[in-house]
Amino acid sequence: MVLLVMKFGGTSVADVDHIRNVARHVKREVDAGNQCAVVVSAMAGQTNQLIEWTREAARLHDTREYDSVVASGEQVTSGLLAIILQDMGISSRSWLGWQVPIKTDSAHGSARIQEIPNSQFVDRVRGGEVGVVAGFQGISEENRITTFGRGGSDTSAVALAAALNADRCDIYTDVDGVYTSDPRIVQKAQRLDRISYEEMLEMASLGAKVLQTRSVEMAMVHNVRIQVRSSFENPEELEPATEGTWTGSGTLVCDEDEIVEKQIVSGIAYTKDEAKVTLLKVADKPGVAASVFGPLADASINVDMIVQNVSDDGNYTDLTFTVMSNDLDKTIKVIEAARSEIGYSDVKGSTDVVKVSIIGVGMRSHAGVAAKMFQALAEKGINIQAITTSEIKVSILIDSAYTELAVRTLHSLYDLDAE
Ligand code: ASP
Ligand code: MG
Asked: Does 150 sit in the ligand 1 pocket, CB within 6 Å?
């Protein structure tokens, strides 16, 4: 017997028929004698609708009320799943975040989980009742409903798995695992059997939308193994979980030590969420970078990539950096306001850029990975506008018109193409 957390995303609970299908996955595990906590998202599209309504009500609004509204989508699906399970003769009940309770801080809209104390919820799940938990939500010290940011049900699932000391955390979604790249643009992308937490973290924060970044951070800290798998496979054809084994379906997100064959590069990610800002003719003297990035930090704008060109004459240089595209207007305003302190001739913003990243833990022990990347892109005539690296990734900024070409080129370059 194992203790399982099973999480189902919005497309898996899109309507009552889909929820019935989810119930069959749960039944398979219950029939095998497993204990289950199930986390559900809101029906696909529902959270967007709820957010739209809060904006329609008032553009600027109390974020505590925003949370109260947007958390309601998960209330519906958790109740419906409990009803269907009961109808199948399975003992179950629904739990809202505050009932579990999932205790959080008060950062409404992106609250962080602080504690899931031992409680009736834990006892009942251990006693064999299926606990259906509304994802994405918790309760603050001020006794208000909080939510965890978009995609936050993944984090609910991992936190519950840690609190219950679950044997597995299965994240059911509409794809059958984590791929080497986005299958929509790379036809030869392959499903990975295993991926390390660190690689998954980079993939998630660099554009792969399978798991919320925060859930991966939490899994890494608490050593929760996550199996990403599809809810659209026939529920009765999958093997129920048994102790110490992992079903072949999907991708296991786990510790690096559990991955025997380490690739140099495991995946290619891309994100169009970044915008480029260039300051022309900035004085080449000490303190300039501080005068640019200080005010941006004060305005809570995150800067990602930075490139400072060498000046020809030793007096002036151009400075280029990237921010999230939805911060672009604010960034230009902040830079313009600081114009007299910084001193520059012009500021330009553009959104027609894409950040492409290669990710792999094997990079740590291999030289020349970046050089090979730059060479391959140069051969295709792709100009690199900015670069950042970490121990396990290299990211480049290029013209967005070359997204497909760059991603496909790199996918082949690092031998990731399916046969
Ligand atoms: N329903 C929430 C959202 O759409 C949370 C989730 O699906 O994980 O962001
Ligand atoms: Mg999701």
From this structure: yes
Please enumerate in sequence order all residues whose Cβ is within 8 A of that of 133, keeping only pairs 6 or more positions apart, or say none.
37, 38, 39, 40, 78, 94, 95, 97, 100, 121, 156, 160
Q: Which helix (H) or strand (E) holds 276?
A: strand 274-283
User: Which ligand 1 atom is at minimum distance from the Cα of 10?
Assistant: 7
pLDDT digit string (tens) for 131-145?
Answer: 999 999 999 999 999
**For the chain, which domains are there?**
3-175+210-257 (3.40.1160.10), 262-419 (3.30.2130.10)
Encoded tokens for 144 = 């208000």
Tens-digit pLDDT profile for residues 277-304: 999 999 888 888 999 999 999 999 999 9
**pTM of the shown model:** 0.90
Tell me which ligand sits closest to the C-alpha of residue 135: 1
| Pocket flag, ligand 1, residue 51 (CB < 6 Å) | no
Does residue 152's CB lie within 6 angstroms of at least one atom of ligand 1?
yes
Decide: helix, strand or coil at residue 34: coil
Q: Are strands 393-399 and 353-359 parallel, antiparallel or unpaired?
A: antiparallel
Q: Span 310-320, mean pLDDT?
A: 83
CA of 383 to the centre of ligand 1 (A): 37
Summary mean pLDDT of the chain: 94
Q: What is the mean pLDDT of residues 53-70?
A: 96
Classify strands 145-147 and 130-134 as parallel, antiparallel or unpaired. unpaired
C-alpha span between 92 and 85 (Å, rounded): 7
- How would DSSP label each residue in 158-210? HHHHHHHT-SEEEEEESSSS-BSS-TTT-TT--B-SEEEHHHHHHHHHTT--S
Task: Tell how far the Cα of 232 is from the centroid of ligand 2, in angstroms.
Answer: 15
Contact 283, 365 (CB under 8 A): no
